DNA sequence: TCTGGGGTCCTAGGACCC
DNA sequence: TCTGGGGTCCTAGGACCC
């Protein structure tokens, strides 16, 4: 049985181009939150030598000289287009794993009598035509090899977007051409160690003795090793298990000293965590709030603290979670520092069955869950209109992200949809 | 001036138990 | 001189992913 990996090409840039065709053929990059680092590049931007993850200010000169077009991240737009891609893909296979916003694994179990190259070509054409987002497809005996194949499909136009590794010869040839640092599961640390012993390609890696892998890279490294050799060790996860941890945190557009503004941010993060809990029908058992100053500013006094609170009763009620998050904040807040980042993390999560009745507190009340359902319904339909007063106004808050080059919410905001039509 | 956010899994070592 | 041993659970930290 074979696995497929579908990867959207330069996904965020492709999303921006979809609604602004004048960007085609030009160097375009998309920045992370707060316009910090480069997280997506068009091919033209890659050719200029712009690396993934580079801080934007470090390449300002390059951007100016080559008139690179820069966007802030527009996650609402990207998530919407991602859903369209995933929905189309689901029509082609029985089993699909949405692996990230721009990648999905497909299972080709039961496709023994198919010409997978033809079928793969059909998938790639349908998605590209149906959504406007170009994609590449890699097919092989394991997930790790499918990832390798997809990189070849993307890199060499002759493949027409589909690359299949289905013989020993092709597997070995592909691995000899594949840099070890690009292998799925081998990160920076292991790359450094591997390079130090002369391992450059994925093929070199597969020639190491298994004992070396076990000693230095644990069972995850062993899985990667076997998968590259063609033995499938990582299965498709069709319905991903619910999250074991939920986190919302942000760096601020500008540093914050004021407790009340920090409280607005922390309340909003807590609200976001509560929403995510309800979306997977779970309850928070225990949460953490953290705040810290700007680590990069060696010239300023530094402060960093967190606090963990066990909730009296597991809950997904926004009001409860905000209440306890603010208690934590007031315990750790120390005046006189300039804070750069804060966050709320739900560390322990339970489902309805897991809620232990507490002798002295009421368990999740019907009233609370009905209210939350109503709020989620309204916010789902009309954008996040309902919030607690302590979260402050969404329009003029000091803690919001810096997004100086944001594109319009083309697909989700009616005003922007009308604007496209008028243009 | 300016350096992302949200996750997962694995391991080593300490605490604790009988 | 001698100062158990084995099992389990928890946590912090490290590695990885997109």
Write the layout of secondary structure elements.
Blueprint: E1 3-8, H1 11-18, E2 28-31, E3 38-41, H2 43-47, H3 60-65, E4 69-72, H4 75-90, E5 95-100, E6 103-107, H5 116-131, E7 135-140, H6 143-155, E8 162-164, H7 168-176, H8 188-196, H9 202-206, H10 210-228, E9 246-256, H11 259-279, E10 283-293, E11 304-315, H12 318-332, E12 339-350, H13 366-382, H14 414-422
The structure holds a DNA duplex (18 and 18 nucleotides).
Provide the descriptors you would attach to this structure in a database record.
alpha+beta; 14 helices; 40% helix; 12 strands; 4-stranded antiparallel beta sheet; 5-stranded mixed beta sheet; 423 residues
Describe the overall structure:
The chain has 423 residues and is α+β, with helices and mostly antiparallel strands. Helix content is 40%, strand content 20%. The chain has 14 helices and twelve strands. A hairpin with a 6-residue loop joins β2 and β3 (38-41).
Brief characterization of the structure:
Helices cover 40% and strands 20% of the residues. The protein contains 14 helices and 12 strands. The model has no long low-confidence stretch (mean pLDDT 91).
């Amino acid at each position: 049985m074979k696995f497929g990996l579908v990867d959207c090409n330069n996904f965020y840039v492709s999303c921006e181009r979809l609604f602004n065709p004048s960007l085609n053929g030009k160097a375009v990059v998309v920045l992370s939150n707060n316009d910090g680092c480069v997280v997506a590049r068009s091919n033209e931007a890659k050719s200029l030598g712009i690396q993934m993850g580079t801080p934007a200010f470090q390449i300002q000169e390059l951007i100016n000289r080559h008139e690179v077009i820069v966007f802030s991240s527009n996650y609402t737009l990207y998530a919407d287009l991602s859903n369209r891609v995933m929905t189309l893909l689901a029509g082609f296979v029985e089993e699909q794993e949405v692996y990230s916003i721009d990648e999905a694994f497909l299972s080709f179990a039961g496709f023994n009598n198919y010409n997978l190259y033809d079928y793969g070509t059909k998938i790639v054409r349908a998605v590209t035509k149906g959504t406007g987002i170009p994609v590449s497809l890699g097919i092989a005996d394991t997930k790790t090899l499918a990832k390798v194949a997809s990189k070849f499909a993307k890199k060499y136009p002759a493949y027409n977007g589909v690359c299949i590794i289905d013989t020993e010869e092709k597997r070995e040839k592909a691995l000899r051409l594949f840099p070890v640092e690009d292998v799925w599961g081998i990160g920076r640390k292991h790359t450094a160690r591997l390079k130090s012993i002369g391992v450059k390609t994925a093929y070199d890696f597969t020639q190491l003795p298994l004992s070396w892998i076990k000693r230095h890279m644990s069972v995850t490294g062993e899985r990667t090793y076997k998968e590259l050799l063609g033995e499938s060790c990582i299965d498709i996860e069709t319905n991903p298990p619910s999250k074991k941890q939920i986190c919302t945190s942000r760096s601020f557009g500008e540093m914050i000293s004021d407790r009340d503004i920090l409280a607005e941010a922390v309340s909003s993060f807590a609200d976001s965590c509560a929403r995510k809990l309800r979306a997977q029908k779970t309850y928070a058992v225990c949460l953490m709030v953290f705040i810290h100053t700007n680590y990069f500013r060696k010239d300023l006094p530094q402060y960093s603290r967190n606090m963990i609170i066990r909730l009296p009763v597991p809950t997904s009620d926004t009001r409860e979670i905000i209440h306890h998050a603010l208690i934590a904040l007031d315990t750790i807040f120390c005046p006189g520092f300039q804070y750069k980042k804060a966050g709320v993390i739900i560390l322990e999560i339970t489902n309805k069955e897991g809620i232990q009745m507490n002798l002295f507190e009421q368990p999740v009340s019907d009233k609370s869950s009905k209210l939350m359902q109503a709020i989620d319904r309204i916010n789902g339909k009309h954008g996040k209109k309902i919030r607690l007063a302590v979260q402050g106004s969404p329009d003029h808050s000091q803690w919001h992200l810096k997004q100086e080059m944001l594109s319009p919410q083309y697909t989700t905001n009616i005003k922007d949809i009308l604007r496209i039509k008028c243009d």
